[in-house]
Design goal:
about 110 residues; alpha+beta; two-stranded antiparallel ribbon; 4 helices; globular; Outer Surface Protein A, domain 3; disordered N terminus; 3-stranded antiparallel beta sheet; single chain
Length: about 110
């Protein structure tokens, strides 16, 4: 198993490989960002900004986190904060390494309402 395949991998390995929301995670957008609920672990996570939510939702569309941050026009000085947030999400299994041949599409129907 490589470091990039581990959901508890450090921030450096987040920059390699494609990531996605875990299949058991539901997203509820909020004015401050979003709530994420993991039905498997029964954990609740808060995304503090809509920018982080946009990056999380776009992860499956990009070959790695750096590409997702670049596509979202995250300023260089904000990258460490985004990586910190994404690392916390990986450590809590909210985001997981994507399957090599699949792209997870998150539709509005999957959101908690």
């Amino acid at each position: 198993m490589t470091a990039a395949a581990s959901p508890t991998a450090p921030a450096g390995s987040l920059l390699t490989g494609r990531w996605q929301l875990a299949p058991q995670v539901a997203v509820r957008p909020e004015p401050f960002g979003a709530l994420l609920y993991h039905f498997g672990t029964r954990r609740l996570s808060f995304l503090k900004t809509r920018g982080v939510l946009a990056v999380v939702r776009s992860l499956p569309e990009h070959p790695d986190v750096r590409s997702a941050l670049s596509a979202a026009a995250v300023p260089d000085d904000a990258v460490p904060q985004y990586l910190h947030a994404l690392t916390a999400l990986a450590e809590s299994s909210m985001i997981v390494p994507a399957q090599q041949d699949s792209v997870l599409q998150v539709s509005p129907k999957e959101d908690l309402a």
